[in-house]
Every structure is written in C-alpha cells, then in structure tokens.
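Trying the structure run again after the queue cleared.
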Amino acid sequence: MDMKKVLVFSLLALFLSACGKEQISHTIVGSTMGTTFSIVIAHTELDQKKRQALETDINALLDEINQRMSTYRVDSEISRFNQWKHTDWFVVSQETAKVVNAALRISELSEGTYDITVSPLVELWGFGKSGNRQSPPTAGAIADAKGKVGYASIVVRDDLLAIRKTNSKISINLSSIAKGYAVDAVADFLEEKGLDHFLVEIGGELKGKGLSPSNRGWRVGIEKPLVGERVVQQIIEVKNNAIATSGNYRNYFEEDGMRYSHILNAQTGRPITHKVASVTVILPSAMEADGWATALLILGQQAGLALAREEQIPAFFVLKTKEGFQAHYTELFSPFLVN
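Done. Tokens:
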C-alpha cells in the first residue's frame, strides 16, 4: 500500500494551464501532512487582507485534519485509536469516520489488497517510521505481521460516530487516502467562500474547479515513471474533478538485482511485482481518487483495469516494459486526455 505517497505529478504541471499570456491570479503555498500544498485561485480579485485571511483559514483547516488523521501526532484521533488496546467503541469525529468508511469500502471491493491496517507490514519491510532495511524479511516475520493486519477487524458505527477494532492488535494508517480528503475539504471551503475557479494540490493529489487562468480546464501532466527525471507522459484536463496518482518507482530498496517497492499487497504481505508503475484516477472526490489510485496500482493491469471498469472509474495505467512505457486506460478516462 502507498503509505508514503510519492509526488508523481511534477509541480511544474500545475502551471501547464497558465502557459499562455495570462497569469495565475493568486497562489497560496505551504506545508502539511509531511508534504507541500499549492492552491491556485483564478478569475478572482483578492486584496491582501482577503488573501491573508484565506491563507490563515486554510492552514487552520489542514491542521485540524492533521489532528484527526495523522499517525505522526501522538495525540491525534487515529494515534489515540491505535494506542487503544481494547475492542470497545472509540468515539471519533464525523470526518474521520467518513474517511475510514471510504477506505473500508475500497478494501472490500479490492478484496483486501488495499488495506488501511497494513502498517505492521510497512514497518517490517522498512518503509515506515522504523527506518530502511537492505534485505527482505523472512517468511515467518511476514506471517507474524499479517496477523496484525486485516481491514475486516475495523468497524464503523455512523450513528455513534465511533469505530472499534475486533482485534486489539490492529492499527489504522490513513496516509493513502487522507491527503485526498484534505483536498476535498479545502475545495469545499473555497466554494463556501464563493470562489468558482481554483486548483487545490496537496502532495500531488489535486482538485480543479471552473476555469484556469487560460480560460480553459485545468491541465496537469502525468509523469513518466522515471527515477531521477521528471518527464510528462500524458497531459490531462479537468474542470470539476479530482486527480490522484499512485506510483511505485521512487521508494524502494534492492537486493541481488531484485527491487522491493514500498507498495505492498496486504493479502500477500509482500511488495507488488507486476509491471504497472503508476495509476492515475479521476473522480469528483479526491478522497475516493486517492484511495482508488493506490488500490488499482496494487491490483495491477488485468485485475485493476477490470475492477476500474466494473466500478466505472476513469483510470490511467502506466506500464514499464522492455520497449519503454505503455499506457492503458479505461474508456471513461478518454475525455480527459489532451492530444
């Protein structure tokens, strides 16, 4: 699972929409969730006071989300739930319950390959807080870690706004879906402020509304999955949709010529080994796009494309082959392609 989402969109791609004579109206940038964010507001006059007020409110909103969903804050809702070694109901915010519910649905539809309880495996393979490793773990160690993994052990009760674990060893990590939720939250906030044209980006997950400064949709570049280079594979354009990409090509270790990626299949307990290097998903919800991009990447080309078509998800797969990179996408992705 993509527990350390790599920025697979070049930040320069944010400005593909403004490559003509017209300039971006306003840009707000900052840091959150261990990454950066960038917000472009177009076709709107903002004086300095209004712009500063927006920036203050956005930072406060993102800090509030971090306080609910971050595993790096020991007193966040999720961290306190993870420290809770009981199987009783644990009260959470409506926002956290919503994100957990969305993740569990994706887990079920992907038959558990995507799993927000995968942290023990992430740590075991050296992609978590405990640091890197130079060789793969033993089969026994993987089996032990899998005993602490299982999305079905998490239950959400919407009427109580509470969650519980049926296995007290289970923990939750929302890093594969929380950034998308944060993008949605910021976009909703901007809409509430009466803004109709903007692009919100957090750690590579984006949501565009209305028109860019160039009076067209927001154009974004999907990167070729190259290590050490940033080259655009495909330009896409959205107006009122979110974009999320998951990739496996920048966070890995190698041993004896074998590359071990940080993208883990929770069912096997091991890194993925297929040829899909990245998956991009376009949906109205950035939260849904974020989670689905990771799930489809884990599943691979055949199973991933089949599930995307079944669930009517616009998805773009980039495969690494001996001849170079190949793109495969669902029919619903075609309208977003810029030739």
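Residues 48-69 form the longest helix (22 residues). Worth checking whether this holds up in the mutant runs.
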